[in-house]
From TrEMBL:
Claim: Transmembrane helix is one of the keywords in the record: yes
Family under the similarity heading: Belongs to the membrane fusion protein (MFP) (TC 8.A.1) family.
NCBIfam families in alphabetical order: RND_mfp
Origin species: Novosphingobium lindaniclasticum LE124
Name of protein: Uncharacterized protein
Ranges of residues in domain CzcB-like barrel-sandwich hybrid: 110-233
Annotated TM spans: 37-56
SUPFAM superfamilies the UniProt entry points to: HlyD-like secretion proteins (SSF111369)
GO CC annotations on file: efflux pump complex
Domain CusB-like beta-barrel: 252-321
Molecular function via GO: efflux transmembrane transporter activity
Keyword annotations of the record: Membrane, Transmembrane, Transmembrane helix
């Protein structure tokens, strides 16, 4: 009886019957609670792992596509093509007199007795600019004038002696030899008169050269002489500087490439620094030599006189260089760094590449590109500063005219 009861209890526990929930023999309440929490944790972990697995497997393609869309930036690009642009060259340089004329003393020199003009005055050819002391020269002229009078008196006596001899020769009182001698004496006296007059003319010319005169009409630029100053002869010192005809010029510094694009006779607009007024001139000479140190040459732009054009001043010039055909880009498309100007070009695979360019003139339509582009490329219009070589982008092409209007 007791044996059968023991077997029933064992079978009920093993078979999961009514006694399945009964605790094993010897198990405490704390053991049952711990076991329950372990079961809950295991079930939750299995459920979480299953959810993650389905989420990853089911949404893998969607997540990849979304990430790709977020990381690939969209950029606006243009295809500039090639446009005909009226060429202009911008240059700077200094103003100067086109024909500067230094003036000094060409005579013997001496003490300055009077200065008759100031810097900024207009003078005419032959006008006296300054007077040099001539007291010694005046006395020399007076003495030479007296010598002429003496020579003339000797010539008159010689002529009278000859006339008397010719009357006596017919009577036989004077020989032919005496007549020849008196004729020679008369001729010598007349020659002495000519010599005296020539000497006086020389003294007068030397005295006249003491005056400092203007060799041509023009504008007095500098006055470097004062009253009472002693000046030397031979033009050793510059006393005045004159701009012939008042004509001015701009010595524009240009690169080799720019010099090759212009020719004598092209118009240029010159604006002095600090002023708003511009003056129209013409290139009248192009330097035949290039400076080996800076690879630049000088284009000389002739300008008419104006008080605003002061020699030695600084000015800028815009020179007409004719039409040129080149790509034109908005300013936003061109980047600059220590390596120079560049743009970003998008290739057929929508990958960005850096392209070095040389910029030209700036027009209302944009900046011309002299080299680096042929006009068929897709050029990033904006946001170039946020891109790098090899970046993948989504290009959006706009018309060049529209991009210029947007700018």
């Amino acid at each position: 009886m007791n044996y059968d009861s023991k077997i029933d209890v064992t079978e009920n526990q093993g078979s999961g019957g009514d006694w399945a929930g009964a605790p094993p023999v010897g198990e405490t309440e704390q053991d049952r609670t711990s076991r329950r929490w372990w079961l809950i944790a295991i079930i939750a972990a299995i459920a979480l792992a299953t959810g993650i697995w389905f989420a990853v497997r089911g949404g893998e393609e969607t997540v990849a596509t979304g990430a790709s869309d977020i990381q690939t930036p969209a950029v606006t690009v243009i295809v500039p093509g090639r446009a005909s642009v009226e060429g202009e060259i911008t240059a700077t340089g200094s103003l100067a007199a086109r024909r500067p004329m230094p003036i000094g003393s060409v005579g013997e020199g001496g003490q300055v007795r009077g200065v008759l003009v100031e810097a900024g005055d207009w003078v005419s050819q032959g006008q006296v600019l300054a007077v040099i002391d001539r007291s010694v020269q005046s006395q020399q002229q007076a003495g030479q004038s007296a010598q002429i009078a003496v020579a003339q008196a000797d010539a008159r006596i010689a002529q009278a002696n000859l006339d008397r001899a010719l009357k006596l020769v017919e009577r036989g009182f004077i020989s032919a030899a005496d007549v020849d001698r008196l004729t020679a004496t008369r001729d010598a006296a007349n020659a002495q008169v000519k010599v005296a007059r020539a000497t006086l003319g020389q003294l007068q010319a030397q005295t006249a050269r003491l005056n400092i005169v203007a060799p041509a009409s023009g504008l007095v630029l500098e006055r470097s002489v004062e009253l009472g100053q002693v000046v030397g002869g031979g033009g050793s010192a510059v006393l005045f500087r004159l701009a012939k005809g008042g004509e001015m010029e701009l010595l524009a510094q240009l690169s080799e490439d720019d010099l090759a694009r212009i020719h004598v006779g092209v118009e240029a607009k010159v604006t002095p620094t600090g002023g708003n007024q511009s003056f129209t001139g013409q290139v009248w000479q192009i330097a035949p030599v290039i400076d080996a140190t800076n690879r630049q040459g000088v284009a000389r732009i002739a300008l008419p006189y104006n008080a605003a054009l002061r020699p030695g001043g600084f000015a800028s010039a815009v020179i007409n260089s004719g039409q040129t055909v080149a790509p034109v880009l908005p300013e936003s498309a061109i980047q600059n760094d220590d390596k120079g100007a560049f743009v970003y070009v998008v290739d057929g695979k929508d990958v960005v590449h850096r392209r070095a360019v040389r910029t030209g003139i700036v027009t209302a339509r944009g900046i011309t590109v002299k080299s680096g582009l042929d006009g068929s490329e897709k050029v990033v219009l904006r946001a170039g500063g946020f891109l790098n070589e090899g970046d993948k982008v989504k290009p959006r092409v706009v018309a060049a005219a529209k991009s210029n209007a947007a700018e």
